[in-house]
Design a protein that fits this description.
48% of the residues lie in helices and 3% in strands. By secondary structure, the chain is mainly alpha-helical. Strands 1-2 form a two-stranded antiparallel ribbon. α7 crosses α12. The termini are far apart. It holds the Pfam family Cytochrom_C. Belongs to the CcoP / FixP family. This is Cbb3-type cytochrome c oxidase subunit.
């Protein structure tokens, strides 16, 4: 008898609509069918999807996709557009490649092309480290000033871009190596602090009240002058920074200087000739040179 009652349709007294038989705290769910217009659209989309699978590329395969009866793919359009763009820019690229930096700078049209292409390449490849405007950050050089580790001429910038800095995959990469004076036990903590105070003093910055400046100067002469120079002016051939201008890649405060002297710094820049073509590197060179620190 219970089973018969369960299978017998029940109706809502207020609306006369059949119910699903579900009951929640005395509330019954009406068995209301979906609107016919909604069902029609739903079935139409199913038919449309089947047609789409047949006409357009849709189903992924192991190494490819189904091509569809019309063989259309948006990637084909993109490839055609890119080929047309390269063809249109071929003459410009050739002129840019063959011209010297001096010729590019002297020719307004060539300079405009180089700047546009260089700015795009900078945004895609360099801005992540150096910032959108080339202002840099701690550990990443500011390209807007005239403080260059390796030189700011066209030729020097191009070489840095092509071969990178301490980039293991390029035998001609720029290489500089500062000893880790503390980590390798060449100087103790007091001596490192004395050298750090000396560096701040030659940069025109304040030093600690009881700093051993005489001892720091002696330690500097014995350990640092070979690369940074007797006066601390640096050496671009070795990538040794100028210590007298109060500009430092990692900071000139006591904590940063102590860390640098203790453990050294070994930042890496990619060798872009392995990723960018010669024309793009030339345009990028022109753009970086124009940021304000080019020589």
């Amino acid at each position: 008898m219970a089973e018969q009652d369960k299978n017998t349709p029940q109706f809502d007294a207020a609306t006369g609509q059949s119910t699903t038989g579900h009951d929640w705290d005395g509330i019954q769910e009406l068995n209301t069918p979906l609107p016919r217009w909604w069902l029609g659209i739903f079935y139409a989309t199913i038919i449309w999807s089947i047609g789409y699978w047949i006409v357009y590329p849709a189903w992924p395969l192991v190494t490819d996709v189904t091509r569809g009866v019309i063989g259309y793919a948006s990637r084909i359009d993109i490839a055609q557009d890119m080929a047309l763009l390269k063809q249109e820019r071929a003459a410009q690229s050739k002129a840019l490649t063959e011209a010297s930096f001096e010729q590019i700078k002297a020719d307004p049209e060539l300079f405009r092309i180089a700047m546009a292409q260089g700015k795009a390449a900078f945004g895609d490849n360099c801005a992540a480290c150096h910032g959108v405007g080339g202002g840099g950050a701690k550990g990443y050089p500011n390209l807007n000033d005239d403080d260059w580790l390796w030189g700011g001429s066209f030729a020097e910038i191009q070489k840095t871009l092509e071969h990178g800095i301490r980039f293991a995959g390029d035998p001609d990469t720029r290489v500089s190596q500062m000893p880790a004076f503390g980590r390798d036990k060449m100087l103790d903590a007091a001596q490192i602090r004395a050298v750090a105070n000396h560096v701040r003093s030659i940069a025109g910055l304040s030093t600690e009240p009881k700093a051993d400046l005489a001892g720091g100067a002696k330690l500097y002469a014995d350990n640092c002058a070979a690369c940074h120079g007797d006066q601390g002016k640096g050496n671009r051939e070795m990538g040794a920074p100028d210590l007298t201008d109060a500009i430092s890649l990692y900071g000139m405060d006591m904590a940063s200087l102590t860390e640098t002297i203790t453990n050294s710094r070994n930042g890496v820049m990619p060798a872009w000739q392995q990723r960018l073509d010669a024309t793009t590197i030339k345009a990028l060179t022109v753009y970086v040179h124009s940021l304000g620190g080019g020589q």
